[in-house]
Write a structure and sequence with these properties.
Helix content: 40-55%
Number of helices: 12
Oligomer: single chain
Structural class: mainly alpha
Number of strands: 4
Largest sheet: 2 strands, antiparallel
Strand content: 5-15%
Distance between the termini: 34 Å
Length: 277
């Protein structure tokens, strides 16, 4: 497979890159009984991402070789083998979650626009090292040093050629459409959701100063042994943001701006221009 495969991997990582370390935030859920699994209601999306009329807003053109792709149930081995051949076994094992890769990508991208994006479905491995806070007189704040944990990964993402990545995404689009429908959205168009989620991420706020946190209280008789997974934003408005926007807050302003710039490039490649037919 040619070097576009690397760009395909990165295409999926663009939406998830900022949240490769989301495990520490979602990890606090492990200290409480798991909630029943249910499909969440669609979030309120920006008006600019909602189609003015029924149908597909951002169609992906039909691919001549789509019939050569494996079906979703048999796509794992092909993707794993090709990724390993290109990136090497160690790189793939350290960077990617290759089991159910198409399903992971669809679930992660969809989840970024919702209240929760389950860390168990990320197509990328979690960022190493522990999340840290900075204690100040009035309480804990997000430590600026956390941004450095993401720097290498963000640098990798920002070097992507968005045009080539989008071309490969379009060629492999049927796999992601199938995964999205299997996720619980029959008849819904995945690329429309991708564009809508990108719009959500681009609207993430950019606070001027340090972000204050609060530590959730432990419920029940068993004491917490991992306090670092129990932090949340002290500002209720920030805590109520979609998962993807909160991720962009956590990676630090410089990383967030770099990721937003790449998301704008990607959106230009996969979204139909306003007013076009």
């Amino acid at each position: 497979m040619n070097t576009s495969t690397r760009l395909f991997v990165a295409l999926l990582c663009v939406a998830a890159a900022a949240g490769a370390g989301y495990w520490w935030w979602q990890g606090r859920q492990a200290e409480a009984p798991p909630a029943p699994t249910a499909r969440p209601a669609p979030p309120q999306l920006p008006a600019s991402s909602v189609a003015a009329a029924p149908g597909i807003a951002h169609p992906i053109e039909d691919q001549a070789d789509a019939d050569k792709l494996p079906d979703l149930a048999h796509s794992d081995k092909l993707l794993r083998d090709e990724l390993t051949s290109l990136l090497g076994k160690d790189t793939v094992s350290n960077l990617l979650q290759t089991d159910g890769f198409a399903r992971r990508a669809a679930a992660t991208i969809d989840g970024l626009g919702r209240e929760h994006a389950p860390a168990s479905m990320w197509p990328v491995q979690p960022i190493p090292d522990r999340f840290t806070v900075e204690e100040q007189a009035d309480g804990p704040y997000l430590a600026p040093g956390n941004a450095q944990r993401y720097a290498t990964f963000v640098a990798f993402v920002t070097r992507i050629d968005a045009g080539k990545a989008a071309s490969l995404y379009k060629r492999l689009y049927p796999l992601f459409q199938a995964a999205y429908e299997e996720l619980g959205f029959p008849g819904k168009y995945f690329n429309d959701r991708v564009v809508a989620v990108i719009d959500v991420l681009l609207q993430a706020p950019e606070p001027d100063g340090p972000i204050k946190l609060s530590l959730t209280q432990v419920q029940g008789p068993i004491p917490s042994t991992r306090p670092w997974v129990r932090y949340q934003f002290a500002d209720p408005a920030l805590e109520a943001l979609p998962a993807g926007q909160k991720i962009l807050l956590r990676v630090g302003p410089q990383n967030a701006r770099a990721l937003k710039a790449k998301l704008r490039e990607l959106r230009a490649q996969i979204a139909r221009a306003q007013g076009s037919k």
